[in-house]
Structure formats: C-alpha cells, structure tokens
Fold these 3 entries.
Entry 1:
Amino acid sequence: MPQPPDPADVLVIVAHPQMEQSRVNRALQRAAVALEHRGGDAGTPRVAVRDLYALYPDYLIDVAAEQAALATAKLVVWQHPIHWYSMPPLMKLWVDEVLTYGWAYGAGGTALQGKDLWLVATTGGPEESYRPDNSNRYFFDAFLPPFEQTAALCGMRFLPPLVLHGAHRASDAEVAAHAAVYAERLGSHPNWPEMDELAACPACEVPAAERPPESAARAPTHVIEKASA
Ligand SMILES: Cc1cc2nc3c(=O)[nH]c(=O)nc-3n(C[C@H](O)[C@H](O)[C@H](O)COP(=O)(O)O)c2cc1C
C-alpha cells in the first residue's frame, strides 16, 4: 500500500503513462525530485513528488493517502503530457476519485480552499499548430477552462500554466532550460513575481442534489467490477 509522503508545501502530481519513453516530463520530474530532500532549508518550500503511474500501475488509487498528501500543500502541481487536449487517464481518475464531494467541493468540501493549482504540461503539437488556421484549430488556452474550473470549484487559485509545446522537437538545451525554470518556480513558491496580479479564486457552490449520493460517489466503479467479477 503506497504511503503518503512527508508533509509538503509543494505537492507535485506526475502522470505519464510511458515515462520510460518521455524526454520532457522525465526531465521535469527529475528536476522536481531533486528538490525533495532539500526543502525546508532557509525558508524554501518542502517539495514532494508523487508519480501516479509508478504508485498505481493497477489504477487502484489510495484515496486516503492522496488526500493526506494534499493536506499540507500550498501549491498542487499537475505535471503531465497533454493527451487528447486533456490529461492522461490515470490523472483523470485521480481527479474523479480524490477530489470528492464534501471533501474537495460542495457542502463541507473545504480541504483544498486557498491552495494554488499549477498545470505543467507538454504538447506534441508546436505552438503554431494551436491556431484557428492550423491543425489543432484553437489557441491552446481554449482547452484550459476545464482545468481552471476544476480548481475554482475546489476553491483553488489556478496559476498561469507552464507549457512546453512541440516537446518532441525541443532541443536538449531547451528541455534543460525549461526544467531549470520549473525547478526555480517550485523552489520559490509563493514568491513569484506575478502573484500579486492574479485574481482570487471565485466562489463556486455546488448543491448536493447535483451529485450522486455519498455512497455512490465514494465507491470507484472499477473496484466494484473487480469485486463482483
Ligand atoms: C494518447 C496520446 C494523446 C495525445 N494527444 C495530444 C494532444 O491532444 N495534443 C498534443 O499537442 N499532443 C498530444 N500528444 C502528444 C504528447 O503530448 C507528447 O507526446 C508529449 O507531450 C511529449 O512529452 P514527453 O517527452 O514527456 O513524452 C498525445 C500523445 C498520446 C500518446
């Protein structure tokens, strides 16, 4: 059973289904892991990294451990490649199962309020492909509202994402520079220059009637299927 990490100020959730084939996310993960044992010195945040595909190869997420890991975090990072204009499947399952009604949002769901959420993503498509006259047809920002609103529903401030477009064509020097920016940001949160200009998170109330009953909401369907098979 995976254990929650030591209390962290910055919690990095990494999700890459084929990390062994990754160039960019692997470099980013390495940069974050390098901060794990250094945190807390001289006022720097304590950083913890949770690699979802390594922790849960069977997709059986330990919800209590994930929620415990989130408890102390002031910054929650979602670090993953963009898959089908969204997040990889285990990251989505993490959202479905960990961000529960009454805990993350809805009546009594205040566990994440006041935290920051930072999307750190890579795309295969180069920046110019994300334009109305090119293959991805929309500017990349057009794919962000589901992320931003997920944060808002949980009372989290959605920070400007860090995105590396055209990941396969990025040079080694570009990947290294990107990882250095990432590490600098992780290690200096919340003292980022743009923080004062960011709007506070809007309040979003979700009535209980808009969600399934507690028992149905808490039982992951794939576990029910396994148990009854
Ligand atoms: C199933 C799948 C879906 C993908 N969907 C997208 C997409 O919607 N947009 C895009 O720009 N790239 C897409 N890609 C490319 C990945 O984003 C790209 O391979 C990744 O960002 C490279 O990072 P890495 O070096 O860490 O693997 C997809 C890749 C896979 C495997």
Entry 2:
Amino acid sequence: MNIPLRDFSELELKKEIAGLGEKPFRAAQLAGWLYKKAALTFEEITNLPAPFKEKLKARFCVNSLSLVSKDISAEDHSVKYLLRTQDSHLLETVLILQGKRRTICLSTQIGCKMGCRFCASGKEGMIRHLSAGEILDQIAWVNQDQQCHSSNLVYMGMGEPLDNYDHVLKSIRAAGAPWGYEIGQRRITVSTVGVIPGIRKLARENLNQLKLSFSLHSPDNAVRAKLIPSNRKYQLDEIIDALKQVRDQFKRKITLEYILIEELTDRDEDAQGLAKICLGLKAKVNLIPYNRIEDEAFKRPSREKIQAFQQELEKAGIRVTVRYSAGQDIDAACGQLRLREERKARPKRS
Ligand code: SF4
C-alpha cells in the first residue's frame, strides 16, 4: 500500500521532500495540488518534474480511496459517496447541501466498536482506524467531484472520532491550516458518544473555536447503556463532567444529539431529564427522529409526539432543532450503505 500524501503535516511533507533530494519549495507546490486543487492522481499534477513524480509514485499516493458509487438524494440533493480503501474496505462520505453551506460528513473508522443499537456502522464491530490522510482524502473526493471548496466539516460518519484521536486531530489541523483546505475551526464539528479520555484531551488542545457535539440519546443511564454499550464504561455523570471542562475551555456551545425512539426516549420523563442536562451544560439540542436500520425493531414516534417533545424543551428555554437525517432515500444514515454492500459481497452460506 502506498502512503497517502495527505497523511503528512506541512513540516512532515517538507521532510519527506527533502529526503527525496528535492528543493523545499516543491513541498508547497505539492500541498497546493493536494488541498487547494484537490488532486486525486499524479497525472493531474502538471508543474512537477517527471523524475520527481516518479520518485513520489514509488512510495506515495495522491488519493488512497477509489470511488465505488455515488448516489444523489431526490429529497434533499445530499450526495452519498461509497469509497474503497487500498486494503479493500468500504467507507461512506456524505455531502449535505443547505443553502450556500456545503457540509461534508466524514468517516473516521472502518466499522466501530461502540456498537450503538440505532447505528449500522457498529453492527459488525471495529475493523480499523482511518489515517489522517484517509480522512482528508474524503474531502478531496467531494471537492473535486463537486468542483467546489466545501465550507463545513462534521465528524459524524462511520466511527467514533475520539476513539481515533490522533488521526482525527491531525486531520482537523490540516483541514483548517492555510496550507490545507482552509476550513476554519468554527466550521468543524466533532461528534462523540462520550469517550471521556478523548473529551478531556480535546479540552486541552488549542482548538477553542471547534464545535463539539455529544450523542446523548437518553438522560437515563440504564436506557442509555442499552442503546450505547460504551455507556457501561463511561457513565453519564462522568461524561457530563468532562463536557463541562470543554464548555469552559471552548468558546462554542455544546450540542446534544438526541434520537427520538418511540416509548424508549420520547417519554415525558425523558424530556425533563434532557432539559436538566441541557440547562446544566448550557447546551442546545438536535432532536433526530429515529431512522430505521436493518436488524432493529425500534420505531420513530409520531409527528405530534416529536412536536410535543420539542415544545417541552422549548418551554424550559432550550434551543432546539429537529433534524431529519439527510438523504433517507439513499441510505445516508451512518453506515447503512456500507453494511448492505459488505453483506451482498459475502459468499452466501448453503
Ligand atoms: S453511532 Fe457513532 S459511535 Fe455509535 S456505533 Fe455508530 S459510528 Fe459508532
């Protein structure tokens, strides 16, 4: 496997180029192609000498991912890319369009060990982390395909970002850097189900414009542990304590993600518990009506129930948005398309 060139920070790229006996300015030239022009192949790079390109080709690749399929939602025009890694794993990247805003939802792992019951990505366990380069290569695919620069990033695709802390952090720095994609921290959101060591580490980074989103999904420890098995390891009150550290450090409001599942997370006591946590964290809430995945029997509440739940929170003075998953008609919910393709590709047992 060749090493993705986007795996390197600016300094590391300079060292690699120097190691090949080339002049330092070649690193800036190469970074321009990688980030500003979102090149996918060496053939697109026109202003580097052929012998230098040959040296690069022997060890590195411009983009480590290949396109398997691309689907455009007829409902909201979101675009889902199914991409293949060099070692033949599938991952999903979604472009969400809202007015002028072009948000890429990035995957950070192949599979996921958190095993959340409402999520297809965790259904078959964890396979491996994605490298920083593989995360950044997803952005290049979207930017080149759309012939534009994406404006926002959300780390909410396949995988738990804070379980792959170092690669995710490196990709955030490259995404925001002047030599990188130049997507400011204010326009980057990292989502977590509550990996406490990662949250505490993040609070100590100089990333105070970054947005953090916490997947709460139930204010009740026992119910939450049923939905998110990792809650047995990282208990809710400890997670909230770590989130307070981020809230005090960062200049951004934390967002709580909350999936509404009929008779499990949409009860009156859930709204009251959620309101209490929100007020304590000074957080805002995204309500996400449940999107059915294979193998699970949960149900989405009625529209009236969703509205009543929203009003209950608003009465308590909480900022609430209801977010229906983008591109339901193209299986844009996290990991569904990959899971279906992996299962199709498997030999059938007799
Ligand atoms: S919701 Fe996120 S953390 Fe949970 S299994 Fe899916 S990808 Fe992993």
Entry 3:
Amino acid sequence: MIPRHPDAMNHAPHTLLINPTITSRSSARFPLSLLHLSTTLDREGSSSIIDGNMDRDFIDRTLHALDQRAHTAVGISVMGGPQIEPAIAVSRAIRAHRPDTPIVWGGYFPTLYTDTALSAPYVDYAIRGQGEDSFPELITALHAGDTAKLGTVNGLSWKGEGGVVHNPSRPFSRNGPSVVLPYEKLGDPRRYLARTFLGRRTVAHQASVGCRFRCTFCGVAAMFGGATALPPLARLERDLKYLKHGLGADSIQYFDHNFFDREQDMIPLLEIMARFEMPWWCYARADALLNLSESTWKLVRKSRLRMAYIGAESASPAMLKEIRKGTRPDQTLEVAELCRRHGVIPELSFMVAPPENTEEETEHTFEFIR
Ligand code: B12
C-alpha cells in the first residue's frame, strides 16, 4: 500500500519540484529540467517549483510549502558533484517533517548511479533519463495509491518487496515542450536575466536535446546513447519570440548538449536565430565548426555567435582516440584560429591528470594550452 496524504483524494495530484542550491544567485539560470517537467505534470495535475539557486533558504521554503497543501510527491533534480549534498539535506528534512510524502530523485546522478541513489532511506523513487513522460505516470500511480502500476512506468526504479526494481528504460523522446515553458512558476522570471559577457539580460534555453557522439567519459552519452533531436522551427521561433519580447532578454546561453549537429539541419535554425539578433553561447565540437562551409559561417556571424564551449579534452591523439572523442589535437588549434577569424571566443575545456603517465600527460596538456 502506498502511503498518501489524508487529503490527497480530494483534489488533483500536486507535485513540488526542487532544484537544490548549486550556484551563486548571480549565476542562477532557469531551472529548465523542472520547467520541462512542469509542462507535462500540469496536464493532469499541478506543480510548483522551488529553485535553491535563487531562493537560498530552499529547505525552509520546502517544509513551509508542504504544510500549505497536500502533495502527491516531491521531485528533486540532482546532478553529480556538489549538488548531491544539498539534495541529501532537503530529502532528509522532508522525510523528518512529512514521513508519508514520497521523494523522487531525477537527473544525471540518479540516472547514472541509480542503485546508489536508492540505497538512501530518504530516496523512494528514481526516474532515469528524460522525465517528461515517466514522472507524470508515476504521479498518477502514487495519487491513485496503485502499487501495481509502479511496475509499468518505464524509466522508473523503485523499492519493491524483494529489493530495488529497475523498470525497462523509456525510449528516447523527440518531443520537446508543446507550450512555452511556465516561467511564471519562478516568481518573477526576470530575476533570472543575468549580466554576462553576452549581454545585460542573458537567459538560458535548450533548443535541441541529446548528442549523436559516444565519448566514453560523458554523462550525456550515457543518458542519451547517441540519440539527438533538433527543435521544430516553429518551436524555436515561438520560444525566442517569448524570451526576447515577452521577457526582454537580449542574449542567450544555449544549453543544448551539442549545438552544431549536421550542417544542412542547422542552417534553417541559424536563419531564425539571425532574425532575433541575440548574441549567443553554446557547446560545440571542433570538427563540426571546422567543417562548416564559408556561407554557413557567414550565417553564424549574422546570428551573432559570441562564444563556443569546445571540449578539447586532451593534447594527446592517443587519449582522444581512447575516449572516442573523434577529434584530433591539431583540430583544436585550428578551431581556435577559425573562431578568432569569425569573431567567436573559443572556450576550451581540458581534462588533466589521466590515469596513465599522469604527470607527463598533464605537463604536455599545459604546454598545449599555452
Ligand atoms: C545548467 C548546468 C549547470 C549549472 C547548474 C544547474 C542547476 N542544476 O542549477 C552549473 C553551471 C552550476 C553546472 C555545474 C556543473 N555541471 Co552542469 N550542466 C548544466 C547544463 C548546461 C544544463 C542543465 C539543463 O538545464 N538541462 C536542460 C534540462 C531540460 O535537461 P536535464 O537537466 O537533463 O533534465 C531532464 C532529465 O535529466 C530529467 N530530470 C532532471 N531533473 C529531474 C528531476 C526529477 C524529479 C525528474 C523526475 C526528472 C529529472 O528530466 C528532465 C527533462 O527531460 C547541463 C547540460 C544539459 N544541457 O543538460 C550540464 C551538465 C548537467 N553538467 C555537467 C557537469 C559534469 C557539471 C559539473 C560537475 C562540472 C564540474 N566538473 O564542475 C559542475 C558541477 C556542479 C558544480 N561544480 O557546482 C554534466 C553532467 C554529466 C554527468 N556525468 O553527470 C552536463 C550534462 C554537461 C556535460 N555535457 O557533460 N551545470
């Protein structure tokens, strides 16, 4: 029998979504994971969001929110690294304050380390991968108190009588948000318009999802398995119109896992972005930028790409081969010059201290960086 709030059956399911504190307030960007989940949760119920990056007292706010009304469950977004500590703290506080409220973890950490997450007494369910379809199904089951349904939710891992049960994974979903994200759930969304290198009112947005590459070290490859989906042109137009004219944004950080996919597919997107004239930042591969034609680079300049985050990873061809990056060190040097020629600042990330020849390789990478 699934424990439920005594008042639960008197209204539609309601879910509280939490993003534990992980950045300074000035670095806070839209909690897109929770906004995406809200769009689907609100089809058959309702949801509210607490973002610890903006509201630093997020644990007190959470306990207060739980006292205001019946909650079917609490959903917590957890990335690997520093976000785990505040995620544990808020989960423990919820468990102590409302023992009957189910706690659901989602995001990169519970997706990549599901058993570890579920070994904690304050984590009842883990949603693996994209949550837009799985989570509403779990909420429906919890709201109905229907244990039998738990086994049917793809992408869910839960604690059965005989131990942890991992339901089959959910196939990759190409469906993006069918409506403009519910930014109003963040209080005044203009609080998230940040002053950055790109502009005075920078916002974060995710247009496409996934990545077709399978670099061995990357959580994205593990989460999406090489699947990727670009946004329909109308959706990109709709979202940019809202961000620029609705919210007053003047520049964008695209959080897409790998912005420049196949050149011919990018051109219509770049044409729309060029019309909005909002300086932008993205994640990009060196080989993708090097392979763009002169005419596409002309369009990229017109679209006002200002900075590209490029995973250079290593100065060692052998290492790049081993991690299946698919690029070469000479391409890293070449793309740095290419970007400069087109007025784009290359932001290059490297991994140092590999397991073999640690010191030698690290020194080699430092020389390469210089
Ligand atoms: C914004 C961001 C940050 C922000 C903070 C975000 C926050 N939580 O407030 C900052 C800048 C702090 C950050 C830091 C780091 N980040 Co970061 N970050 C991102 C980024 C660019 C966007 C996240 C986002 O909004 N995605 C869009 C939403 C829609 O997708 P999503 O988050 O995946 O959510 C979906 C699912 O995961 C799931 N889901 C997510 N949460 C929940 C919750 C519930 C309840 C459910 C049911 C489902 C669910 O459903 C959602 C909808 O499909 C991602 C790349 C990306 N595009 O995802 C990298 C990424 C998540 N970061 C990554 C990493 C590694 C880090 C760092 C560890 C890097 C470092 N070494 O320091 C640091 C760690 C944190 C730190 N140092 O404090 C990796 C994670 C990979 C991994 N192995 O786990 C990513 C994937 C980048 C990459 N390409 O590798 N990051």
